[in-house]
Amino acid sequence: MVCLRGIDNLFLHAYIAKHKLKPRDLNLSQRSYIRNMDQIRLIQQSYRQFIASEKSVEDFFDTQIIKFESSHENRPFTTNTIEVTRSPILLFEMNKNRNRSYYQIGVPMDKIKLTTPIKMSLVNIFEIHGIIDEFNTEDLEGLFVLEDRHRINIHLYLLDENMKGYRNSRVPGTRAIYNTDIYIGMRDDQFYWIQKNLTSRLYYCSRLPGKCCYGTNDLSNLTRHESTCTDQTRITASQVDHLDPLLTYVEFLTITLRKYMAKKKTP
Ligand SMILES: [Zn+2]
After folding, report:
1. Ligand 1: centre distance to CA 208 (Å)
2. Could you state, in order of their start, the residue ranges of all structural domains in the chain?
3. Model-level pTM?
């Protein structure tokens, strides 16, 4: 049994994540103790190259580290990262804020709890879920070929101004037949990695963005509403929170002004 003393802990775990090593590849006993001698030699060799390169760990591995932290075994892992700009790896630090913090290997996705959407490319969102594939990012419907190919459910949401996920009839839906779920948020032509806890069950009317704010958790109700929705539908104060994010500021001002004028006319 060998402990990789002298090797920076962050480097070691970035190496493990970058090479997608599993505990069984390392023949791990506990924490940093690795019993696989071939693997130890490879890591030591890479570490010498890293020291000689004088690069940061992220630059050396050409990656962005998303560091997740948990204060206790029973608590989820959370992160402060809000944007990812290059191929990410996930590191999981346990016992944060206490003595003897250490990195965990092989943390399942359901131990992660995102508190805010993380902006990143579609390629990187799938990469985080272990999926490397070719797809056309311009065609959202085309994205769904990945569902059968990788046995995943792709859940697409629009993000409102509070970065809460919602759907409308123009957002293609998953058949939800597999066990693995990938949640993706969209706002201003940008994609975000999100989770179910950051979404609403509601569908909103897409017929008249900014004018009609009808919302329902039943897709058939939405379809019925949209078939009859006209610009006679009035906007009410309580609905302003749910304005479509695609609504431009100018449109918003126009509506506000129209409401103001209408109010003024009433004696
Ligand atoms: Zn409507």
Report:
1. 6
2. 2-111, 118-199, 204-265
3. 0.79
DSSP string, 47-90: HHHHHHHT--HHHHTT-EEEEEEESSTTSPBB----B--S-EEE
Ligand 1: distance of its center to the CA of 226 in Å? Answer: 5
User: CA 101 → CA 53, 94, 180, distances in Å?
Assistant: 28, 6, 30
At 12, list the tokens.
């070691």
Say how many Å lie between the CA of residue 139 and the centre of ligand 1. 25
| CB crowding 6-16: b at 16 or more within 10 Å, else e | ebeebbbbbbb
Tokens of 67: 């560091």
CA–CA dist 244, 229 (Å, integer): 16
Contact 142, 170 (CB under 8 A): no
Q: How far apart are CA 190 and CA 17, in angstroms?
A: 26
Strands 215-216 and 199-204: antiparallel
Contact 126, 132 (CB under 8 A): yes
List, for residues 182-203, the tens digit of each pLDDT value.
Answer: 999 999 989 999 999 999 998 9
Separation of 174 CA from ligand 1 center, angstroms?
A: 23
Task: Give the whole-angstrom CA distance, residue 256 versus residue 74.
Answer: 48
Answer whether residue 45 shows pLDDT above 50: yes
